[in-house]
User: Fold this.
Amino acid sequence: MKITFDWLKDHLNTNLNEEKLIEQLTNIGLEVEGIEKLSAGNELFKVAQIIKIKKHPNADRLNVCEVDIGEKKSKKVVCGADNAREGLITIYAPPGAIIPKTKTKLVIAKIRGITSYGMLCSESELNLSDESDGIIELLSSKYKKIIGKSYFSQSNLNLIDLSITPNRPDCLGVRGIARDLAASGFGMLKKIKEKKNKSKIKQNLNVIINKEKTQGCSAFGSCYISNVKNTESPQWLKDKLVSIGQKPISAIVDITNYVMFDINRPLHAYDADKIEKGIIVRNSKLGEQFTALDNKNYKLDSGMCVISDNKGVLGLGGIIGGIRSGTEFNTKNVLLEAAYFNPRSIRTTAKKLNLDTDAKFRFERGIDPLSIEDGLNKAASLIKEICGGEISKIDMQKIGVYKNKNIKFDPHLFEKITGFKIPNIEMLKILEDLGFKIKKDRKHLKLTVPPWRPDILQEVDIIEELVRISGYEKIKIIDPIKERTKSTLTKSQKLFHFLQRAIASKGYLEAITWSFTDSKYNDYFKDKNKEIKIINPISSELGVLRNSIFSNLIMYLSKNLNRGFRDLSIFEIGPIFTGSNPGEQSIVICGLSAGKKHRLSWIDKERNIDVFDIKRDVIQTLVEAGYNSYKFFIDNETPNYYHPGKSGRLFLNKEKDKVAAYFGEIHPNIKKKIDIKTESLVGFEIFLDNLKLPKKTLNSQKTKFVVSDYQKSERDFAFIINKDVSSQDLINAVSNVDQDLISNIKVFDVYEGENIPQHQKSIAINVTIRSSEKTLNDNDLEKINKLIIETVENKTGAKIRS
Amino acid sequence: MSDLKKIKDEFFSKLKGKLNLSEINQIKSDLFGKSGLISSQFKKIASISEKERKKFASDLNIIKDELQQLINYKINEIQNSEINEKLEKEKIDVTLPERDFVRGKIHPVSQTIDQISSIFSEIGFSIEEGPDVENEYNNFTALNTPDNHPARDMHDTFYLDEKKEKLLRTHTSPVQIRTMLKDKPPFKIIAPGRTYRSDSDQTHSPMFHQVEGLHIDKDINMGHLKGCLNYFIKEFFEVDKIKMRFRPSHFPFTEPSAEVDIGYEIKNEKIIIGEGDQWLEILGCGMVHPNVLKNVKVDPMKFQGYAFGIGIDRLAMLKYGINDLRAFFDCDYRWLNHFGFDPLDVPTNYRGLSR
Assistant:
């Protein structure tokens, strides 16, 4: 909502200045979004006449104009407008002027070899309208006399742009704003001199509101004005509209707009002679069409509230009128409409047709249902004043009656909610100033809500009015008490934070990417999940919810590689989605590592990042988080985006209940398709929701500290074993031989090739044996050795290498 | 000259020369070997007259000690110089680079969330979460934002079905609903998380982060709200004093509602919070609307309290001087390195939020 202080003063007596005004508007909840200097440099734009025109010697589409700007010498201006012609009166902007639309400063410039001193302006360049075809054409009769004078009338006004919250339709008119300001002590609200309609002429055009199940219109007031002479608006009215950024059209249209902005009463003016017989307010039929004032043709659904005549739809009630019945300069007889439309009906229709107008914006928020007659009278008398003619009596059609809203308000509630007190007398004054009617009983205030406040429904709304006008700065600060009765984080939240920092500490940079992604990328990583489409994505590249974090992460990794970084590790912790219902999501920590270790190192040997690097990161992180790596179980069943031979699936224990993590090389096909340029690309996913949370705290998990002081022995074994038997099986077999005696097993060599049969491999392990009861003698050790070899050979089919 | 003196003089002068270890050992055995010079003198003792025996023995012992000391000293000297020589040979250029190390970083949004959690933890808030995909009821209707109400225009919503029943939450406020439906009052929670709106430009990202706050008890009023936010802002920006302004506003789920501005100024191209006469909007808040409480089966006659919603990304931008919101989600390696935090930098109450 745009206003000027000047216009406010039509409704408000005040001595305070604009600076104070702006502060006060914000203080009472009418947020000032911006302040624009209306007239800065405006005096530079002059009424001017083209006296001579020549084709530009070097450009077909340009003309060189001699322009009379009221000075002795004419100015030479290069102009490309088609409508530039000798004798045309238009608007001239000199060098130094700032064009309102583009905010650019004009300079003397050579255009294709001809120097141009300034410019001739179009309406759109001056922000007068959207019209950008050709330069402005001013009426010769009016402007001939003032060539050389400034086009804009002078004022030092600022345009104040307010952000009116959707609960305050009353402040979509200047008077409503003035009322709020007056209530807050910023001046006195002026009384409106009511324009009485003393006409004895009947409104002869028949108006009917059809009784329908869902009738969007509940009241339709109309006034007939005959024998008018529609003209341009007088200067004061034009200035008024221009001052808030509106474009003057004709007196009748301007008057309806003026009344709307002034008292928030939308009106519509019909050329009465174009209405066939009478007006019927009814629901539209499927497929009905009409051309609206925006020159667009609309095809209607059934059930939209339309104003129609015998021939068909005249307009969409409360949203937009139609071309067929619009007023023009030659309009003789006018029918003025002021109606009440149901906000929901307006909103549904406008949304379906994707239409937004000033009237719609107001009706969908709720217009004062009792403002019909005031609005009609105000507009009709202005029309009579400016365009002449005879005004009829008002015809009022209604279905249903407006009932006053009454609220019983307990003044004590104010302190209970706000924490501070205001005197009763102040309360009463505020409410009265806002238009409430008040009756007091012993404990309560019985309030009648003014009809322009559809937002006020219950006691708490009254409290808001009181605290808003009284001032939020009066709310006292009550310092919070530092005490904690409940732990801040749950166990799973603690795990989230721990894993996040554990992974970062292994050299990964944390990224945050969007929860949606490109379906093309998502396809690579969705595995068995189904795609979840967003119905209205901002772009097709962000059209689906991610089934995996990899899709975004790999895209950004690739971007970074293209920036010239070669060895990168990034991770993200966040949601992935398995369905479109709330809760069908889980938290994953997903990382990618690319490139080499020890690139260009003088001391270490350079090598590609590999699966065992990323496996270490996963295992170490889980161990740090408190999970026992001896219980981990790994197999190679992984989703199809991993290299099938170089990836693993990890469970926290052998029971394989839920997958704790995947790790491995990204499938070479995906690397190729994405065209990612790196020597090696490995990744992992840890599924937080699948990690069992320990019942005990880490503290109570710590067992008694026991160590064995008896000597340990180490023994090496080399087994030849089938290639497809995993080292995990071999190690398990060994450790199960005697869990008390075998304290550590290390794989120190894996070998295939010469001297080893085909399809077999050699695994060499080092086993630490130690008893907690005694020092083992040779005999004991020999026994264990034998048992280890026997067990491994039996369980895994391995053979000890002699 | 006695024999002893002769031996002493001879060997002292011998030992003063430059000798290697084997030469010294030769000397050692010449003197103290089985038939060494000193050893043979000791054998003489018995045959010396009683009168002279005592002095002879004493002189011999002194000479023996002196020679031994000198020999030990020489051996030591040689060993030291050999070690030094060896160490000298082992010398390396320690200014050569160390082995590679990599440093991970925590995203500034994560760090900010941890800071926020730490601050609110101190005054008794615990952390709740909710899903990113919400139903229309929790996101709007239960929050007193009925279908077909203009207030919904303030949220450009991403939908997941044609009926517009499933959506990406446009704010963290549905966590209020979930929390209150799940438990019984009092409630004192914050809920940080991802939120989504379908606009995208320099200052808007289709995904951003909010933290919701909710405190419901028997007598929680706007003074508590002001106190809580005043405390939070001061702690968060780590300043002693802030300028804060409550401005009336409108949110369907709070009544009365307020927007909160903080005072700032720009000094040397840096934003200083808490000084100056510029205002910056940082959050929305208000007293939870009775309709919302009714929707979650909390009796508004018995319980009341406040809620707030803060843009996390915006707070991080202010605190760390980050200009472009979009950069948060662009994953530029350089940016992440520049604005990221060391994983060991965990914000805590006792150590402070930042180093």
About this structure: Residues 778-796 of chain A form the longest helix (19 residues).
